[in-house]
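So, is this right?
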Amino acid sequence: MISLPSSERLSLRAFCPTDVEMIFRLHNDPDVMRYMPAGARSGIDRTTAEAFVSRAMTYPEKHPGIGFWVTIERASGNPLGWTCLKLLGQTQEIEIGYRYLPSFWSKGYCTEISRRVLAYGFESLALPRIVGITQHGNLASQRVLEKIGLIYERDAQFYNSDVRYYALSLEDWCARRKATNRLAPAARVSRRTATDTTPDPACC
């Protein structure tokens, strides 16, 4: 069984029935839903929240390795929302996505865990390509996709909404990792002082 990715401050876990209340709050928050497709901005009722959690719980059975995961703040143990790798609409493309409660915004959490999820998709699942979409006005989400390495390719339409479409291939991911690892030893040495005895971290 492949372990789910985690980061210094965040962990991921599978959905369970007790997550309905969190999803109900998350998907009814006007700030969270501001850039969602028009049909989703009005929020959801508890039956729809239950259906979302049920789908998230069974998604990996149909699509092993990918799915929706509750994102947890390690320090508090509190859920902040969800992160996902899932099929993009009716395509066979794999989309990275995220949705978090506003109280956890502006902490760098989204970029932090999305980097790990991207690495998981390429390194553990060997996905040939990962894409991301965001509404044109959602500049914060666009910055996250760009920070983790996805490249804007084109404007598109998904989920009945006009979006910006980003992507990164496994080939380009591997090339970047190799380039980074070649530069890493010299960069680490240049940052050291004569009294620094901290061991080098292992290269990926």
Remarks:
- The domain at 10-185 is CATH 3.40.630.30 (Aminopeptidase).
- Residues 188-204 have pLDDT under 50 and may be disordered.
- The helical segments are 20-26, 30-33, 46-62, 109-124, 139-147, 170-191.
- The first helix runs from residue 20 to 26.
